[in-house]
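The data layer described in this paper is built around a simple, fixed record for each protein. Because each token names a local backbone shape, the row as a whole describes the fold. We quote a single record here, exactly as it is kept in our systems:

***
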Amino acid sequence: MSTAEAKAKAAPVSVPETKTQETQKGSSAVKSFLSGGFGGMCLVAAGHPLDLLKVRMQTSTEYKSTLDCFRKTLAENGIRGMYRGMAAPLVGATPVFAICFWGYDLGQKIVRSTYNMSPTDSLSTGQILFAGGFSAIPTTAIMAPMERIKCSLQVASANGAGPVYKGPVDAAAGIVRAGGITSLFKGTCATLLRDVPGSVAYFGAYELIKKALTNQSAGQGSISPLAIVTAGGLAGMANWAVAIPPDVLKSRLQTAPEGKYSGVRQVFVEMMRTEGAGALFRGMGPALLRAFPANAACFLGVELSLQFMNNLW
């Protein structure tokens, strides 16, 4: 083999390696925090209207389908009504996603420490799934009260019953007045019950799909925007495919009047008795419709914002 042929064959490999080194060099805790937050805001902006439909379908039996819920919500509140309750998750997107991905990274470090692995060793599928599930634990601490406020805002005017709040601050104040500060954390166990298996599916699906599309593991080499969008969108759908039943229980618990339920177990028993197992999958349609574009936007936002910041400093 001539020297020219050797260089020609080596060239395609060296390019992605250089990109990876530059990305790692340009990445910092601040950049990761900001890019993760921007990705979270992209997710909320892209997916909130369908999230609102999901919550309304989960907490009411008056809607026959996703389309019926959309038409009634639009007729009642107009296009602005589709973004009701968005302020709380939008403001909280930065810390939530920062903590989520920090928790995922911490989960990976725990695995590496336990098995005496170096930072460059690839994790097995089971180890990735563990790290994904672990990420839900610290995230729930701030996710639970945000979900409580968001769900209360989303269902406030659905049936013309219950308190109508002016915004997230007013909703938080009203929740505290009605049930004390601990009421903000109603549904924490249900949130954890939803997010642990959901995060297992989320990060597991993303890493495996991205690896299949690029034939490379996370953090190694370059990845196309199409692969990011595809892997991110499908990961979001995988998340909700397993998380929707506990999410229904969480939404019912968090939007119920104070004292109606003692916990998520009572919500489950009551729902099975009066509505049957099918109620656990109410809102699946809008959840899956929302999942792909929202999570595709999230991961694309993370990558683009990180690239933008790397070009600035």
Remarks:
- The CA atoms of residues 223 and 298 lie 15 Å apart.
